[in-house]
Amino acid sequence: MNSERIIKKYPNRRLYDTEVSRYITLADVRDLVMRYVPFRVVDSANDTDITRAILLQIMLEEESGGRPLFTSNMLAQIIRFYGGTLQGAFARYLETSLELFARQQQEFAKAMSDNPFETLARLTQKNVELWGELQEELLRVVGLPVSNRKKDQSS
Q1: Which of the residues 20, 39, 40, 102 could staple to 5 if both were Cys, CB 3.0 to 4.6 A apart?
Q2: In angstroms, what is the C-alpha Rg of the chain?
Q3: Cβ 33 vs Cβ 55: under 8 Å
Q4: Burial of 115 (0-12, 13-18, 19+ CB in 10 A)
Q5: Cβ atoms within 10 Å, residue 41
């Protein structure tokens, strides 16, 4: 069995899940995302990968209802990075930050079953270190001087 589920999008805008041999909705695709099921959406006419477009469509639906995740200011700031020299660095920074946040959320839930206070102290220290490393990488990319954290910490 293929490790990546293939979903075909037909000209009538319907999505067909080839693994279960039936048409599905965007809500079903969202469910795949929530269950960490690897998938790819392809245009049935030319096999072009349109996964990003479908994920953006799901995000748009999520943003339109209830409480949005992104404020207008956040969206404007993200748009400003398109086409600029920092677009690639920003994308890596954002992706790494989200992966870190998700991983720590999982670790936190697992660790809270042990000693909650020790867990909080350990995660806080780890957060400070990781965010510092991410910040230093971003500063290096934009060409700004990076302070020597170890030197600063020993003072």
Answers
A1: 39
A2: 21
A3: yes
A4: exposed
A5: 22
- pLDDT tens digits for range 91-121: 998 999 899 888 888 877 777 777 777 777 8
Of the pLDDT bands very low, low, confident and very high (cuts 50, 70, 90), residue 67 is: confident
Q: Which two tokens stand for residue 70?
A: 């992104």
CB atoms under 10 Å from CB of 35, counted, come to 7
Q: Sorting pLDDT into bands at 50, 70 and 90, what band is 148?
A: low
Kindly list the domain boundaries of the chain, sorted by start residue: 5-64, 72-154
* Spatial distance between the Cα atoms of 132 and 14, rounded to a whole number of angstroms: 45
Of how many residues is the chain composed? 155
pLDDT tens for 44-56 read 999 999 999 999 9
The answer to whether residues 49 and 40 touch, using CB atoms and an 8 Å cutoff, is yes
Euclidean distance between the first and the last CA atom of the chain, given in angstroms as a whole number? 57
User: Which residues 6+ apart lie within 8 Å of 106 measured at CB?
Assistant: none
Q: Both tokens of residue 150?
A: 């170890």
